[in-house]
Each structure stands twice: as C-alpha cells, then as structure tokens.
Design brief:
Layout: H1 3-21, E1 22-26, H2 34-46, E2 54-61, E3 66-74, H3 77-90, H4 95-102, E4 112-119, H5 135-149
Antiparallel strand pairs: 1-4, 2-3, 2-4
Helix pairs in contact: 1-5, 2-3, 3-4
C-alpha cells in the first residue's frame, strides 16, 4: 500500500467519525484552556457512559485536512486527557515535543486542534478493510497509517505502536 492509499484510508475513517465525536480542543491562535477542554471531554463521555473503552485522536485541523498527531485508547478518557492537557501545558519530558508541535508562547495553539473520542460500541468499521474493529486493533491500524502518511507530526513514539 502506498502513501496515497494510506492517507485515503485514514481520511475516510476519520471523516466517518469526526462530526459526531469531535471536541474543539483549540482554535488556531487561541490560548489552550484546560478547564474548558476538561468540561467538554467530561460532557462528551457522559453521553457514552455505556461504553467500556474509547479510542481518541488529537488532530490538527485545516479546511482541507485532519491530521492525527496523537492516538490512544482509554477506559476513562476524561482522566487520561486531564493528564495529557496538564503535561502538554507544562511541556516537560516527552510532552516537550507535543508543546513544540502544537503551541506557541503563552499556550497559544499553532493550528486548530480537535479531539475525537470514539466509544467502542460506536466503532462500526476499521481503518484498514477486513481488519478487526476492536479498540486495540483500530488504535494499532491508525498509528500505523499515520506514521506512514504523516511521519513528521505523529507524537506517538516509535515502538509504542499497539
């Protein structure tokens, strides 16, 4: 599978889910607001409290592209993202790379950022046709596709593919 095919599979899968499961993380040029993001995530997850596990994608968003920069899974995305946002704003350790890619000085977003949080019971298709659609498998497929299609923006460290 070549670069364009991988990019197409990724775009198709994201476009299928992004309207329903999108949380506005930050608009380009705006300051990251930890409290607002936490409230949005908590409200979003409350709507899907019957789910056991979630997959999430933090994406840079333009008029033409939605580029995932971080992909993960969690039983409790609210707690997980409360930690991620705090560490992003601190910008220490591995989160320095996040901060350099996503933020200017004073916690201003370089790009518009969206967060997709998709409950396991809402996943109806896998990114790569004929692959399993479990959260773990979908996460692995997405990390693989993004690492090939957008290798310079993926914040998941190499070797952490699941």
């Amino acid at each position: 599978m070549d670069f364009e095919q991988k990019k197409h599979l990724l775009e198709e899968w994201i476009n299928f889910y992004k309207d329903k499961f999108r949380i506005q993380f930050a608009a380009e040029g705006n300051r990251i607001n930890k409290k607002i993001i936490e409230d949005l995530i908590e409200r979003h997850c409350t709507n899907y409290s019957d789910s056991n596990e979630y997959i999430y994608l933090l994406c840079m968003s333009t008029d033409n592209d939605t580029i995932p920069v971080y992909i993960g899974k969690s039983l409790n995305p609210y707690t997980r993202w409360k930690s991620h946002v705090g560490k992003l704003l601190e910008g220490k350790g591995s989160y320095l790379r996040w901060k350099n890619l996503l933020l200017q000085d004073h916690e201003i977003a370089i790009h518009s950022l969206i967060l997709l949080i998709i409950p396991d019971n809402e996943i109806v298709t896998s990114p790569i046709p004929n692959f399993p659609k479990t959260v773990g498998s979908v996460e692995y497929q997405l990390v693989s596709l993004v690492s090939d299609a957008y290798p310079n923006t993926l914040l998941n460290r190499e070797g952490n593919r699941r």
